[in-house]
Amino acid sequence: MTLKELSKYHDLKIELDDLSQRINELELTLVKATKYSDMKVDRTFNNSSPTEDVAFKINKLKETYNNKQIHLLGELQIIENYLETITDSEVRTIMRKRFIDLLTWEQVAEQLHYSNPVPYYKVRKYLGK
Predict the structure, then answer these.
(1) Residues 8 and 67 in one domain
(2) Using the 8-state DSSP alphabet, how is residue 117 labeled?
(3) Residue 59 reports pLDDT greater than 60
(4) Residue span of the structural domain in which 110 resides
(5) Residues 16 and 70 in one domain
(6) What total of structural domains would you count in the chain?
(7) Has residue 43 been placed in a domain?
(8) Is the model's pTM score more than 0.70?
(9) Distance (Å, whole) CA 129 – CA 126
(10) What is the pLDDT of residues 94-129, one digit of tens each?
(11) How far is residue 30's CA from residue 50's CA, in Å, rounded to a whole number?
């Protein structure tokens, strides 16, 4: 496995967190829109209400979120399976903290009492790069 492959989980997690935040923001918008649902809104281009538009966007985002979450769990399982094959417990711990717990290299070094670049170089050496 490569550093890039291991980092995919991190990138997907960030994307999933962003989607979750967007869903929450739209849900707040929907709550506000329903408070003012008695107000007339001129909608010249389509017949749906602003509330329906926001609800539709929320549902589409939730569908995307659920699909990405399934994909994320698959990526997590791939990484977990790979980590089980690593016999060097030090490298396995570093990789788990970096790629599963999503810590920065600096945070990994601090938690394991290394100088800053040591965990990164141990992983690179293990991966043969």
Answers:
(1) yes
(2) T
(3) yes
(4) 87-129
(5) yes
(6) 2
(7) no
(8) no
(9) 8
(10) 999 999 999 999 999 999 999 989 999 999 999 985
(11) 9
